[in-house]
Design a protein that fits this description.
The model has no long low-confidence stretch (mean pLDDT 91). This protein has helices at 13-25, 30-60, 75-78. It is an all-alpha fold. The chain has a domain at 13-63. It is built from 3 helices and no strands.
Length: 81
């Protein structure tokens, strides 16, 4: 089981009151609400980093785009009107 660690957090009183009401409406505590929100942020960051590394790997391994490394066009051909 993971160990927890308490932290100190300073919030504006008005903001804290609103957070408490949100927590009550969600039938949780302020701590539970913050924990869930922070876990979601970490999960999104982890997924982003995994996707970023995957795409870097694709770019570094010279993915074949069907050109066999040769271009048969030039800029002027692409932008002919």
């Amino acid at each position: 089981m993971n160990k927890t660690q308490n932290i100190t957090l300073s919030l504006l009183k008005d903001l804290l009151q609103k957070i408490k009401h949100i927590a009550i409406n969600k039938q949780t505590s302020v701590s539970g609400l913050l924990t869930k929100t922070l876990e979601e942020i970490v999960k999104k960051e982890d997924l982003y980093e995994k996707a970023r590394l995957h795409h870097i790997d694709i770019l570094e391994n010279n993915i074949d785009l069907g050109t066999e490394g040769k271009t048969t066009w030039n800029r002027e051909n692409l932008y002919e009107r």
